[in-house]
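Example 3.2
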Amino acid sequence: MKSMKYVAAACILLAASVGSAAPVTTYIVDGQLAGFDGITLGSDEYNVRFLEGTWAGLVGLDGSRLDFTNLATVTDANSALVAAYIANPTFNDNPALTVGITISTFTWIYTPFRASGGQIKIHSIFNTADADARLFSVLNIASFYDTTDIAGEVYADWQKVSAVPIPAAAWLFGSGLLGLIGIARRKKV
């Protein structure tokens, strides 16, 4: 009975260590927020970079470099992006500290995705320090729409880094735990 308590405690510790992901970190260039590293979506990890230009330049005119192919995943991605902003009040409270943004009141962040029917659309975030004013929307923006000279608009380039791995220590711990359970059962027989 005593060993079962230890096994239960070990399983809880293992679950806690496997479930925790690395924190999202800011990517700073010349004192400006240029993106975030380590945004986890499901089992994938992404780095996001803020870029000016056109969506065709970002993902290709045919969308061959699109990271998201449906509304649900791009909505989850942009929700995670807003959460990263909120966790960094320096940038959330002053959008002008973001690459490509030159006004201090709000930011439009655009993430291209492939909608049903194969169309390329833009999922946008209107981010501001006022939580009640934040909004998400889906837009039809022409492939040549350029954010370079627009004060409050920037594209988000999502770069898949890797699948979030289960640490090797977790596998080793789990196999050791199974061995101990086997030894305990053999002693009972």
